[in-house]
Amino acid sequence: MTDGITEEQLLRPHAEQLYADELAALARHDTGSRPSSWALSPAAVVTYLLGGELDDGTVITPKYIGPRRLMEVAVATLATDRALLLLGVPGTAKTWVSEHLSAAISGTSTLLVQGTAGTPEEAIRYGWNYARLIAEGPSTAALVPSPVMIAMRQGKIARLEELTRIPSDVQDALITILSEKTLPIPELGMEVQAVKGFSVIATANDRDRGVNDLSSALRRRFNTVVLPLPATADEEVAIVTQRVAALGASLDLPELPSAAEEIRRVVTVFRELRSGVTEDGRAKVKQPSGTLSTAEAISVITHGIAMSAHFGDGVLRPADTAAGIQGAVIKDPAADSVVWTEYLESVVRERQDWSDFYRAARGALR
């Protein structure tokens, strides 16, 4: 690391830093055909994402828990001249998958444009060093390349997060890049042509659609992969457990004993409120306005571990997670408070082995 900072001191290392050993091991054992500029073959990229064991016993940890076919389709898309759009509700690991795909294919996940309502066209095309522009006029030295332009020049993957939050006229700057694989610079009478290996991975939220939908012209230039919510409670528990362990390690939180029961309880609450029906299918419940995503469940558990470690007895208990669950559920104080209270009284209160959680949740409401 630069400036004397080690990887262990970083709050959130990039994927290529955190899993450098796994990527190096995969590269050593990779006998598959690699597309131009790719660090790994498509098959090795899928192994990196889904996990496995190499011939020498090296264990590759799973980065994505879900249908294998979705990851194969995503990787195959990037091996062609098509860009990839990862679509899904919040918490379906769109950003996580995008980062790890870029790390495995290009060796870097940092060529990133974060989409917001204020994202300018320069963030996708290029900008100028205005001091040099005024002093010298338009020149290559005064040009400030965007992450997309850098990816084009180097044959790497560029990432665009929350594409639908970017204004429509700025989105359309991608059309020429994706269709012609070139970026004109009329001020200099030149263009940047993409090197083989260049592609774009964009993410978009199909529930909270953001500020602007994609134009049909732009959408046609993406292959879309829809990332679903976890199909089963066991799958979601596995995802939450894995991510909480990784986050806890990076935040230097202690490993707590017997956290599995509370993780499953949080996941159960979120799944029932999200689907509008109890786990056994016997009763319908009202749905709150929030998404109650897997990512929010991870946040609730991580916060609960911090509460237990610093202000509790070192064991994750309902009192440590109740306030976090309430905060995730109640986004609209008027409507969601009614939904949460009704769920506690009609569902949670009736579960004998949930009496401690019921008391903690009712106490958090006061």
UniProtKB/TrEMBL annotation:
Domain of life according to the entry: Bacteria
GO-annotated molecular function: ATP binding; ATP hydrolysis activity
Domain ATPase dynein-related AAA, residue spans: 84-222
Pfam name, any one: AAA_5
InterPro entries: ATPase_dyneun-rel_AAA, CbbQ/NirQ/NorQ/GpvN, P-loop_NTPase
Protein name: ATPase dynein-related AAA domain-containing protein
UniProt organism field: Gordonia rhizosphera NBRC 16068
Organism lineage string: Bacteria, Bacillati, Actinomycetota, Actinomycetes, Mycobacteriales
